[in-house]
Amino acid sequence: MSETALVKKIACIGAGYVGGPTMAMIALNCPEIEVVVVDINEERIKAWNSDKLPIYEPGLDEVVKAARGRNLFFSTDTKKHVGEADVVFVSVNTPTKTTGIGAGRAADLTYWEGAARLIASVSTGSKIVVEKSTVPVKTAEAIGKVLKRNCSSPGVTFEILSNPEFLAEGTAIEDLRKPDRVLIGGAETESGRKAMAALKWVYEHWIPSERVLLANLWSAELAKLTANAFLAQRISSINAISALCEASGADVQQVAHAIGTDSRIGPKFLNASVGFGGSCFQKDILNLCYVCETLNLKEVADYWAAVVTMNDYQKQRFVERVLGAMFNTVANKKIAVMGFAFKKDTGDTRETPAIDVCKGLIRDGAKVSIFDPQVTSDQVFRDLSTSKFEWDRPDYSRSHTRILDNVKVCSSPTEAMEGSHAICVLTEWDEFKTYDYQAVYDKMCKPAFVFDGRNILDHDKLREIGFIVYALGKPLDPFLQKNYS
Ligand code: NAI
What we know:
Layout: H1 3-6, E1 9-13, H2 19-29, E2 34-38, H3 42-48, H4 60-67, E3 72-75, H5 78-84, E4 87-90, H6 110-122, E5 127-131, H7 139-150, E6 158-162, H8 172-177, E7 182-186, H9 190-203, E8 212-216, H10 217-248, H11 252-260, H12 281-294, H13 298-325, E9 334-338, H14 353-363, E10 367-371, H15 377-384, E11 407-409, H16 413-417, E12 422-425, H17 437-442, E13 449-452, H18 459-465, E14 468-471
Parallel strand pairs: 1-2, 1-4, 2-3, 4-5, 5-6, 7-8, 9-10, 9-12, 10-11, 12-13, 13-14
1,4-dihydronicotinamide adenine dinucleotide binds near residues 40 and 118.
């Protein structure tokens, strides 16, 4: 059978940050394939079918609008579309377990198993099942068993492929349009190779053949966890150096530039910051550690766990800097938090460092005024009242705790900064660089502080205006040095 004959309809379970954009890109480039994204979350599907998509991503609106209604559809009728599809992508959330064995480390595969059971129950013909979610090594084996044991239709077979997603939020559409590579892992059998060829054929509609890499299942699964571990490690490495820079008078940007010109190291991902966030880095490293531990590789687990430890240290260090600079008390002081998303050009707040920084400031009695161009007030309150690791579960009924009486979410930057004692820049939004900081300074309490957790502002200019500036990983203003009197 030719690959083309195999793929007439694709269903994707999970209409999130990965499922929505990836399927929109496939539909755009493969007009002859019907692509349906399904989800149990009705509100999300409604939003995908509306003018206001459920996620913010530059360029996404155009791609969705070009294909939606033609060969791209969003639906809650999971059974019908999964049943009809020849290829089923599974792009559901794979959060960190919060209870039971492996809590705080292992991946919770409840949603994945639920998807597999659904596929098995509605399949009357053979299918290719594609792991798009990031999963622990050997998940395909477990999923294969679930599929086989739960499908009652005779003669139906499932070929499982691993096709991890490497897109980065904020640049998802560009990443999908021109990926560095697409990775497809499959069984080293004739049917496995056939399934890999079918999926490769889909991607080759717009991606050069040499960029579609084939591997065995376990390599593909592990490659995704490894990629995220390496990326997060780079951030933690430069953040560790940023602490040393502050202590020694070195400048982390100069150090990063100097090492980044070494072609073996390269210049990307060397920006020191208040810490990494996003739904994946921490969860995937913890999951990698757990896999290592279960395979009796304690030293390997400890090695990778340090990347997360350093990230927590960096957030804590930032809060301590704010506190130390402001005479060891922020009680009842208005502090403007500029940026809540985990990075610019996304509204995603999952594991954003802003959560831990705000919680740290609130615990010390600060009145926090938050402004972010893309994050809603509801989202901020939900994040600040959610316990660690709980965010990736669909429970939107949590109530706000009393601690949040000291939190205000502002609809303009002026509202957030006016009358404040300090400004903390926690997301690198471009618009933050363009404000009239003289006007801001004039309406702040003195001494007026700026704590730039992303090193995006013009620090010399701010100092000229009169601000006391903390720039992460850079030589400290005399005012911020402990022995200053
Ligand atoms: P998400 O939480 O935005 O979306 C997952 C969706 O799956 C939710 O809308 C949920 O309602 C739905 N879902 C869960 N169980 C379902 C079921 N049984 N039937 C139908 N729908 C169901 O998650 P996101 O960010 O899209 O991530 C998905 C996977 O992709 C995760 O494993 C993640 O680690 C991985 N990934 C995420 C990236 C990112 O930048 N967000 C990048 C690369 C991989």
